[in-house]
Amino acid sequence: MSAFPRAAELGLIGCHVCGLACRSGPGDECLAGGHVVCPRCGSALHRRKPNSFARTWALLIAGFLLYIPANVLPIMRTASLNDIDDNTIISGVVELWVKGSPDLAVIVFTASIVVPMLKFLSMGTLLLSSQRGSGWARPQRARLYRLVEFIGYWSMLDVFVVALLTALVRFGLLSLVEPLPGVIFFGLTVVLTMLASMSFDPRLIWDGRDTDD
Where is it located (predicted)? Predict the structure, then answer.
């Protein structure tokens, strides 16, 4: 039992749209379609995001499935007078390292391999532990969720690198860089994992086994 009262015990519901803390008691709010609504923006209020587990799992699994072709298919083609080379994420990292750009290689490897895998593992851990109503390391899991949200803004770095290289090399007359289908799959993976973290309700971390989604 927590030493601090929860919002439900105080009769409060937080609006997902405008953030207003609303009273949930009878007569305190207007009703629309059987739902309590926010008096400021009119959005339906829920103590927890509806179907949060199902939506988050669906988006996370879809993102993981798209991450496979994102790594298998080439993401960038470099062409010069006597050479045409298609690079996947891994081969591109290796080429950057070999050609004297270790800093950029580390950045691309971190943004394209390490960060997505950590996001998959972190979101999977949060989902499984929350669904089981586990009380294990709740403050740490809440901080982990905030970290996942923060690094999500940097997940498109690999796509930005390809776009930047494409724009810069087009100024040259004897070489060419163009994006390939792997970039599309990687971009979709990033979008789906960001949507998954947005669909997950972090308040579920603090719920016990007797609390419904």
Answer: Cell inner membrane
- Do 97 and 42 lie in one domain? The reply is no
* pTM given for the model: 0.77
Structural domain harbouring 166:
49-206
What phi and psi, each to the nearest 5 degrees, are found at residue 86?
-100, 130
Q: Is residue 195 part of a domain?
A: yes
Here the tokens at position 157 are 């770095």
Q: Is residue 213 part of a domain?
A: no
Per-residue pLDDT of the chain (213 residues; tens, 9 = 90+): 455 677 766 777 878 778 788 876 554 444 444 567 888 888 877 777 888 999 999 999 999 999 999 999 988 777 766 777 788 888 888 877 887 878 878 887 888 888 889 999 999 999 999 988 888 888 899 999 998 888 876 666 666 666 666 555 555 555 666 778 888 898 899 889 989 998 998 888 887 644 443
- Which two three-digit tokens encode residue 103? 């800093």
Angle at 92 between CA 90 and CA 94, to 5 degrees: 70
